[in-house]
Design brief:
There is one protein chain. This protein is α/β, with parallel strands linked by helices and 460 residues long. The chain has 2 domains: 118 residues, Alpha-Beta Complex (Outer Surface Protein A, domain 3); 248 residues, NAD(P)-binding Rossmann-like Domain (Rossmann fold, 3-Layer(aba) Sandwich), CATH 3.40.50.720. The chain is 30% helix and 13% strand. Strands 8-7-6-10-11-12-13-14 form an 8-stranded mixed β-sheet, sandwiched between helices. A hairpin with an 8-residue loop joins strand 3 and strand 4. Helix 2 crosses helix 3, helix 7 runs parallel beside helix 8 and helix 9 packs across helix 12. The longest helix is centred in the C-terminal third of the chain and has 20 residues. The two termini are 42 Å apart. The structure holds zinc ion. Zinc ion (ZN) binds next to helix 13.
């Protein structure tokens, strides 16, 4: 679905993207945050009039009238096209859009929706679209300990419509230094049961279920991913609003119509604001019209391909058995199910984002990392010797909280498309080197045993 200016009741520059005028007369918009902002040349001053007129008090035609009144030589079509360009770039929402949720949820999510709106660079008619996507979403969560407990809290409090929690363990005293869903009174209780109770107490407007179950092999995981046989997908999502249009994942290409040669005519041309929307912060700040107009990657919205799962996403927050990530990778590839995982190795905390058919799979990425790290191992030596695994996995409330937070961010981004992610990567933080954020990305390996052209199957 393409959102047009005419479909907006009262177009408004998003409050979070509020524009200002630079000393040289350009218009900077959304510029507080690197990755969002743009700068627009405005030699005739009408762009500034336009963004001021787009304050959410008038319809599109009245906005154009307002600009033409102040700049009589300007063709109205130019103002209209500029408004369309701002919408396409994600700077505009509709102040007159209806809120498609009951009052209670409107209040509950009244801080989260503006954040989604802030990070959303796709044109949407309604800022609540992303929240509706969460409401319809079905997530399978494996592991509700440190990482999983923090992630579950975030997913449930954010309004993910259905979360199913799986964990084989019981609560122990040694869990309580980092696992937020449990109290001393839960010691000895199955984690899945205690987690469901804690999560339901946070948000009774969503559906939280759970089961005490151990994943012993890929078959167990495949069974979980397939979901309960007797559950009709319609009743998985309570109170599903009807008729709410899905934002079109193909419509996420913000671009401006004008080329650099049109600068003098006063047309909109985005420029990087100190490298805004330029993935390399050290890159040149100006003169990058081609780069600046590079389309953002499409949202990694589950449902892109054929899928055989009762869920929209697997969130893996378990690190046992040792091969569980490999199994998850194979099972999700077979089911066409997007998935995310997270964990820590001491002070290094990372999360991974994977969508079958879109970029590297977990095994591609692992092979790429092994090659990049140049471990200087002897032939035949197990790469695991370079990264010790202990029966006790050292962790604190801080590392578990970061891990769960990154995992929830990945999950929410995959479910909503906000912000748009290009899947097939790991990201994270090394607490020993705060200025050196982790980003691992590798191209998909065509000969990958899991996702390559001659890939085998689920089990190994
Ligand atoms: Zn692969």
């Amino acid at each position: 679905m393409t959102v047009t200016v005419e479909a907006l009741r009262r177009p408004r520059i998003k409050p979070e993207h509020r524009a200002y005028r630079t000393v040289d007369g350009n218009v900077r918009i959304g510029s507080v945050i690197h990755g969002i902002g743009a700068e627009i040349a405005d030699p005739q001053g009408w762009v500034w009039t336009l963004v001021e007129a787009m304050d959410g008090t008038r319809g599109p035609a009245a906005v154009v009238d307002e600009v033409v009144r102040a700049h009589p030589d300007l063709p109205g079509e130019d103002a209209r096209q500029a408004m369309a360009d701002l919408l396409a770039a994600g700077f505009v929402d509709d102040a007159g859009a209806a809120v498609p949720l009951p009052e209670r949820e409107r209040v509950r999510y009244s801080r989260g929706v503006p954040l989604l709106r802030w990070m959303d660079l796709a044109p949407r008619s309604n800022p609540w679209d992303a929240q509706l996507r969460l409401r319809r979403a079905r997530v399978l969560l494996i592991g509700v300990g440190g990482t999983g407990g923090h992630a579950a809290q975030s997913l449930v409090s954010s309004g993910v419509g259905r979360v199913h929690c799986v964990d084989p363990d019981v609560v122990e005293l040694s869990n309580l230094n980092r696992q937020p869903l449990f109290r001393e009174s839960d010691i000895g209780r199955p984690k899945a049961e205690a987690a469901v109770a804690a999560l339901r107490a946070v948000n009774s407007d969503v559906t939280v279920t759970g089961e005490r179950r151990e994943v012993r092999g890929p078959a167990d995981l495949a069974d979980l991913v397939a979901g309960p046989r007797d559950v009709d997908s319609d009743i998985l999502v309570p109170h599903s609003p009807s008729g709410a249009p899905d934002p079109d994942p193909d419509g996420l290409d913000p671009h401006f119509a004008a080329g650099p040669g049109d600068l003098d005519s006063g047309d909109l041309v985005p420029h990087s604001v100190s490298g805004a929307r330029d993935p390399d912060p050290s890159g040149p700040a100006a003169g990058l019209p081609d780069d600046a107009r590079r389309p953002d990657p499409p949202a990694a919205v589950p449902g892109d391909g054929p899928r055989s799962s009762a869920y929209d996403l697997l969130v893996l927050a378990a690190d046992r058995p040792d091969d569980i990530r490999r199994w998850a990778n194979r099972v999700c590839l077979a089911a066409g199910l997007p998935w995310a995982d997270a964990g820590y190795r001491g002070p290094l905390v990372t999360a991974g984002v994977y969508v079958p058919g879109r970029g590297a799979c977990w095994e591609c990425l692992r092979a790429g990392e092994a090659a990049r790290r140049d471990l200087r191992l002897a032939p035949g030596q197990d790469p695991e010797v370079a990264s010790p695994r202990m029966p006790w996995n050292p962790a604190s409330a801080v590392t578990a909280g970061l891990s769960g937070g990154l995992l929830a961010h990945a999950a929410l981004a995959l479910l909503t498309g906000v912000p748009a992610l290009e899947p097939g990567f790991r990201f994270g933080i090394n607490l020993m080197l705060l200025g050196d954020p982790v980003l691992q990305r590798t191209p998909r390996h065509l000969d990958c045993a899991a996702c390559g052209d001659r890939a085998g199957g689920v089990a190994e």
